[in-house]
Amino acid sequence: MTFAHFVRRAHLYTGLFLLPWVIMFGVSTIPINHQSPELAEWTRLAEHRFDAPVPASSENLRPLGRDMMNAAGIEGGYYVYRVNPRQVQAGHPRFLAPLRINYFAEERRLVVEQRRFSLRPFLSAMHTRGGYDMGGFWDSVWAVFVDAVCIGLILWIASGIYMWWGLPSTRGWGWIALGAGAICFAVIIATL
Amino acid sequence: MYLALFLAPWMMGYALSTLAMNHRMPRPTAFVTERDQPYPNVFEPGTPPRDIARQILADLGLDGAFGVQGPGADGRLTINRQGMLSPRRITYTPADRRVVVERMELETSGFLNRFHRRRGYQQPYAADLAMAVSVDAVIVAMVFWALSGLWMWWEMRATRLWGLACAATGIGIFVLFVVTI
User: Fold this and answer.
1) A32/B contact by beta carbon, under 8 A
2) How far apart are CA A91 and CA B171, in angstroms?
3) Predicted pLDDT at A56
4) Domain annotation covers residue B84
């Protein structure tokens, strides 16, 4: 197997393996680039008594988030943020039916809600999910695939340029496409 | 191929910025003061903050996409001029009729983050419109590359078996993730 043959096969097979992610990242950009005022609908699942001090604004909220997850009986990764000084929200991302837990400190109340399936939030959530800091094993596995897609994109660009260079008859138009893209990109970035 | 060559800078930008975001690369938000100057213009009471902000930006020669916070109790407005390379924060204090212009230093992770998040047709500026159109072009291209890749693979009989194994494995893992996590 020659190097050129290896490059072509690697380009093809990694592309086929990561095909669903490529389509997903493409399609899920539509609701992000064409925003709509449609709000997600949340259904109340449970309400609990809960009492814990809300950390000061500079302190880490994750221990409180873990306590909220435990009190709600939910396992897995979560994010947590301060809605306002008296309300903290933890979220457990799931593609089809994510959960959120709101802690109302003054009322010592924990409200657990689930988002009803809706295409736009579903696609947006797929697009934005990532990171290794959620604390859930499967969240980190998903993050590994996000990294794999990024590395795949870089390798497809490099292997694509290599394969293009191997086709001398396309070099002229290829240079024009590459140069025009680079110029358009630079102009947009510089003027934004 | 030509479409891929044209969109290569965008794809490289999205790949690198997604890596930065997936690894939560820190984004320093240090501003340096660029200008601190009198601003004599007066606005009628009740003028919408966005109108005031737009006028201030035009007067400062900083027209472009922006967000605005305020007014605060003292009437202070904070305008965030959303520059891609060097975002600026402009603080207008009507009590002493001054504006302070601060610029964020260019650094890699902040730039990548801003690039990745810049989208949509909300801002009425040509550069923002061009960016939104280019994002749509990337969407169409990604779906087109996926479908044309499938077709080109199917045309190469020698690769069908391994290709099928790769595609089926990828689709299987993806569907499993979507349903279970």
Assistant:
1) yes
2) 27
3) 85
4) yes
Q: Do B64 and A192 touch (CB under 8 A)?
A: yes
Is residue A61 a contact partner of residue A55, using CB atoms and an 8 Å limit?
A: yes
Provide the residue range defining the domain that includes B36. 31-106
Q: Is the pLDDT of residue A46 over 90?
A: yes
pLDDT in tens, A75-115: 999 999 999 989 999 999 999 999 999 999 999 999 999 99
Say whether pLDDT at A187 is over 90. Answer: yes
Q: Which of A12, A95, A173 sits opposite B181 (nearest CB)?
A: A95
**Structure-block tokens of residue B23:** 């690894």
Rg (CA), chain B: 23
Task: Report how far residue A19's alpha carbon sits from residue A14's, in angstroms, rounded to the nearest whole number.
Answer: 8
d(CA B179, CA B24): 26
Across the range B97-119, mean pLDDT stands at 92
State the total domains in chain B.
1
**3-class secondary structure, B81:** strand
A37: pLDDT strictly greater than 80:
no
Residue spans of the domains in chain A: they are: 3-33+145-191, 42-117
